[in-house]
Write a structure and sequence with these properties.
About 50% of the residues lie in helices and about 15% in strands. It has about 900 residues and is α+β, with helices and mostly antiparallel strands. Helix 28 packs antiparallel against helix 29. The protein binds adenosine-5'-triphosphate. The site of adenosine-5'-triphosphate (ATP) has 21 residues, from helix 14, strand 17, strand 18 and strand 21. This is Carbonate dehydratase.
Length: about 900
Amino acid sequence: MSQDTVRQSHGPHHASPPEAVVRRMDVDPRSGLSSAEARARRDLHGPNALPASARRSAFERFLLQFHDILIYVLLAAGAITAVLGHWIDSGVIFGVVVINAIIGFVQEGKAERALDAIRDMLSPRAQVLRDGHRREVPAEELVPGDIVFLASGDKVPADLRLVEVRSLRVEEAALTGESVPVDKAPDPVGRDVPLGDRASMAYSGTLVAYGQATGVVVATGAKTEIGRISEMLGKVEELTTPLLRQLAAFGRTLTWVILGVAAFAFAFGTLVRDYSAGEMFLAAVGLAVAAIPEGLPAIMTITLAIGVQRMAARNAIIRRLPSVEALGSVTVICSDKTGTLTRNEMTVQRVACADRQYVVTGSGYIPHGGFEERLDEGSRAIEPAGALLDSARAAMLCNDAHVRREGEDWTLAGDPTEGALLVMAMKAGLDGGFEREALPRTDVIPFESEHRFMATLHHDHEGHGRIYLKGAPERVLELCARARSEAGDGELDIAYWHARMHEIAADGMRLLAVAVREDADAMRELCFADVEGGGFTLLALFGLSDPPREEAVEAVARCRAAGIRVKMITGDHAATARAIGVRLGLDERVQAITGADLEKMDDAALAQAAADNEVFARASPEHKLRLVTALQSRGEVVAMTGDGVNDAPALKRAEVGVAMGNKGTEAAKEAAEVVLADDNFASIAAAVEEGRTVYDNLRKAIAFILPTNLGQGGIVLCAVLLGITMPITPAQILWVNMITAVTLALALAFEQPERDIMRRPPRAADASLLDRFVLWRIFFVGVLLVAGGMGFFLWEIDRGQSLELARTAAVNAVLVGEAFYLFNMRSFRESVFSREGLTGNRYVWLAIGLMALAQLAFTYAPFMHALFGSAALDAATWLRVLAFGVVVLIVVELEKLVVRLRADPKSNA
Ligand code: ATP
């Protein structure tokens, strides 16, 4: 039965009671669909994915390659050349334009596929009930009838009829444009209410802002509301970034300049030098085609795409291309602690009760280990009872994690903090199934970083109710009036508990407290007021260890060397945060600033504090936003990590928002520019390194390509000014440009990070790709190439050689000069006279090999002679040409030496 017939025969899902919809979808809400049934339904309905957005057709993309003012100029030149009857020149111009377009088309296609593959790594997942078990599946595998769980931060994976709801609020901007989250409830609503008011439904593509819910899938894929209203969701992102747009604008300006110079040359040649108009027109065309860098845009795109691929290989997945550039100029990284800087492998190691303290043995999620009581001298093993056992029970029941045994391994589903508590309770001898059966949960307030606690309401079978509270100790302590000890419940000794907290936190452990209130028989629902009314009895304080990641310690050091400050922002206790901060190698002198401290500051004080300190504790997502803003007000370029739904504003605000791929919510990923596949701080540092490399390689490609254009343009202009025959024809010029772009320059896109890339200070965010140094280098090498090309031409003519031979020598001189210059450009400033410098990038050798083959064909193949008017060279000429290349290599290395000496007179390496 198709979904449409279902709708028609029973009325819309939103207007029917949930039980009716569940029945209609033919599923048992307690066990979900069976795997076999899910497979069958999937075959029927297809995957839960929107049809890929209508891409531009291949032909259209090919045509777009010609849509560039530089190319228009070339096409016009080709057409006029044809009208003048110079068929070969005109054919070559068109030929090169087409070849360039093909290459651009192929490379762009590759780049797009690479990015698509990376985007696929981000496909969302869904929590679903199948075969009676809760499990996580790719959202694409959902079928109508699946029972799906939603929690705060999730992206709703399909259209759901809500069955059970706990304070659910959903942000439906994707669907209705309304960005204020709306409340949801399972009760049916009127048949004809508009989408935005159907509180009983959660629609695919919207985001859970708060709360939890269970729902049954009523529509998937293109049948969902979002699938209906927009056929082409997931807009194709353009392969460009602000810097590249800046460069494109530069290209347009350059074209006008080139046309101006060509017009000037035409006027000068015909009026002053007595060239014929036809001859001079060809020269002007030659000048224009020489100076236009046709290959540059394709090289830029491919460099960017390679950078993005490399980042993905290092676990940083780029969601928005401009962030590649921003990554390269980051000055501050604000990172979460838990899981990013630390391993997030929690183990409860200490328990403090009102009159006794315990050490828990064992590690990881294997529930093997026991309890030892700490005595003045040594410790002794004990069997948990009394307050200790009560606290273990509270920790087990006020908990949403599950650990499961799979062979020898124990795996955790859920939050590691809760997993650790669960395992601790198992070590205390409690059985999860039994406890949950004896004290079923009636209601829950889920944990949120904002309020830093979780509470659950339970009733036993006699109807006695109790609330368990678990959370950050300061929060829990505030709500407690008494504490439980072996002797029974007594007064709460605040000083005692604070001393225990400091002791445990100073060891770098995360703190959690559990409490109970036993007067809840009449309660059926749990709301904030019930918890915040207080009256709890404190059971125990837990210390959980979570050691720093080794890679993170290293990465922090690398960032600091690179002039990037690392700040740790955590929800943990100040003493815990400081202890971990010290182990990570953050600045030891400073104190941990707490969220409460931040709240007391005005904007100026906050900006100062944000700049001076590196550890921020007990911070909530709102503080993150204030910190980003404060740092930005001081001109910093900020990368900020986050995982929760409430982190989204800070992620959006930061120049580079970084979401966690594993523990991050869909809401955080959606707001972020970068997603870390492994949640690891080291991957951020790697992404920064690659970001710097991309920028470097873009500059290298520009500094490599443009001298060819300048050099050849210069040669033509010199010839016009001197009134001599053109040393190089338009067709030959195009040949040189093409060979440079498709072989040599491409090699630079694969260039690895330079050795000192993480020892340089961050680049200014507004720095131009074409800074003075790059412009100087282009000019300097351009002049060398003019000298080489002109020199060889004049020398051969002077020796009485044919025009064809002299031109062939000039062409080879320019290309060989570029080939040697390619080695120079492997580094802007460092010498390449080393093993690494000469052999470090095998693409350089590959490119040179290809170029050599092309040049041999150009020089010796008869059809090339016919096309390009080239001629065979003898060995002596080749030797001279190669010698010129070596001269270019050495002269540029000398220039680098001068630059290095001027930058740092002491270094002469
Ligand atoms: P990060 O360092 O990644 O910012 P965090 O995990 O340190 O995050 P939160 O998750 O906001 O910060 O946790 C803050 C405090 O809340 C913890 O120190 C702990 O005391 C308490 N807490 C953490 N998880 C839970 C939970 N599941 N239930 C109850 N309390 C929790």
